[in-house]
Amino acid sequence: MLNADFRPLSYFPLSLWPWQEAVKAVFLGRVSVVSEYEDAIIHSPRFEFRLPSVIALKEYAPTHRRPAFTRFNVFLRDRFTCQYCGCRFPTHDLTFDHVIPRSKGGRTSWLNVVTACGSCNLRKGNKLPDAAGMPLIRRPYQPNTFQLQDIGRRFPPNYLHESWRDFLYWDTELED
User: C-alpha angle with apex 63: 59 to 66, nearest 5 degrees?
Assistant: First the structure.
């Protein structure tokens, strides 16, 4: 899904819609079809057409300056890297850790939560980082949407359909 200016609504994860929602939006006239899958055809009793692979909104949707506080966005902000040991992990091996533990008055917020691997989270336990001998690599901060999008460009999904590539990296510097 692209915005009306043909930029992705987000970079990671991609603005993906279930095919049923995309088809419904096309029929309701809310989106324009930019590209189609060559080998996927939709059939109904009266219609037959190719499944859209890239669609764009007809009306511009403003992006929010403050991204939602979600587990995935914390991982993205921290670049999928444990903020204690510095190792990068896949998302299923990451947790988030309260820098100031909740039992000591710490809140679940952008400024108190960091990405941690399971072993570091367990080792730190219910202590402050200094008391556990585990200083933070980077202090937590509240990113804006543009910061997360910039970080997200560096972490493309494992599978990109050919028809999507032209729309994801349009603003990156080209190689010589």
Answer: 160
